[in-house]
């Protein structure tokens, strides 16, 4: 999702917005100066529990009768779903969306419509609490000297798998990113631990 903020100068009557992407996608829009004041709003309310692969029910309410509204589902900075709905000039509409894997662990649902040529919108945050990482990692020393052992204490859910990766500071000087590429991932992973209870391990 790209947010574009424009600050037109006083007296501007129209703005022409053009966008072209490298994949061939293009968009253009003319924005006209409209003097209007409105108290209209649209509201999005979650009406059901959040469960993976189950339908989520939302109530969309607008102060004016809606001929249409659009919705966007955003997660991890990407638009993963979108739609155009026609409520048939109703002020309330039951919106149902499937809680997919792409929404985990958090997502945002945005709805928007036009009321008297003015756009109104609302956003609801979706949080999959049950799918958060329940894992803690601590180290026994604050300062580490070369050649010494360190002890990492790990606690998490029984049956969970934990991958361990270690690299020295020289790697940070080699690249601006601290994540391992797909090619070097095998070198980064030094092992995995099958957690059957709250335990700790030693790395050398």
UniProtKB/TrEMBL annotation:
Read off the Gene3D superfamilies from this record. Answer: 2.20.130.20, 2.60.40.1930
Pfam families linked: A2M_BRD
Please list every transmembrane segment annotated in the UniProt record, as residue ranges.
none
Keyword set includes Signal = yes
Sorted alphabetically, the keyword list is: Signal, Thioester bond
Q: Sorted alphabetically, which SMART domains does this protein's record hold?
A: A2M_N_2
Span of domain Alpha-2-macroglobulin bait region: 42-174
Report what the protein is called.
Alpha-2-macroglobulin bait region domain-containing protein
* Organism from which the protein derives: Anopheles coluzzii
